[in-house]
């Protein structure tokens, strides 16, 4: 697999009530990442983009849901989520 650029690996942060609570409680942040990215690439991208130390990376894949629009069928896209735990003392500020 070719090496992806750091900006291509991390697509966007996922900011919900649950992820904000995890960030405050467990120093854990959630991102939508490229489906082809592995944990090592995700770790390097987050360390480079946000200048923090990464302690742990967990990933989850989501399959697209089948949707119906009138008489036509389609589906939403597949996507991948990464849950990043940063080292003590480091924080990521999205705002």
CATH fold field value: Alpha-Beta Plaits
DSSP E strands, number: 6
Task: Tell me the number of structural domains.
Answer: 1
Rg value? 15 Å
- Overall structural class, as computed from helix and strand content, comes to alpha+beta
Separate helix tally? 3
- The average pLDDT is 93
The shape is globular
Percent helix range? 25-40%
Structure description:
The protein is α+β, with helices and mostly antiparallel strands. The protein has one domain (6-86): Alpha-Beta Plaits. Helices cover 27% and strands 37% of the residues. It has helices spanning 6-9, 17-26, 39-50; strands spanning 10-13, 28-33, 54-62, 66-69, 72-75, 79-86. The strands form two sheets. The protein has a four-stranded antiparallel beta sheet. A two-stranded antiparallel sheet has the order 4-5. The protein is globular. The mean pLDDT is 93.
Task: Describe the secondary-structure layout.
Elements: H1 6-9, E1 10-13, H2 17-26, E2 28-33, H3 39-50, E3 54-62, E4 66-69, E5 72-75, E6 79-86
Tell me briefly what this model is.
This protein is of the alpha+beta class and 95 residues long. It has helices at 6-9, 17-26, 39-50, and strands spanning 10-13, 28-33, 54-62, 66-69, 72-75, 79-86.
For the structure shown, list the relevant keywords:
95 residues; single chain; alpha+beta; two-stranded antiparallel sheet
């Amino acid at each position: 697999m070719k090496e992806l650029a750091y900006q291509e690996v991390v697509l966007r942060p996922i900011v919900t009530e649950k992820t904000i609570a995890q960030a405050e409680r467990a120093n854990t942040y959630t991102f939508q990442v490229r489906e082809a990215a592995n944990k090592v690439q995700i770790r390097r991208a987050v360390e480079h983009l946000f200048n923090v130390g990464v302690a742990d990376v967990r990933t989850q894949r989501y399959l697209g849901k089948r949707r119906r629009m009138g008489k036509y069928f389609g589906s939403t896209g597949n996507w991948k989520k990464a849950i990043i735990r940063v080292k003590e003392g480091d924080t990521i500020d999205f705002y």
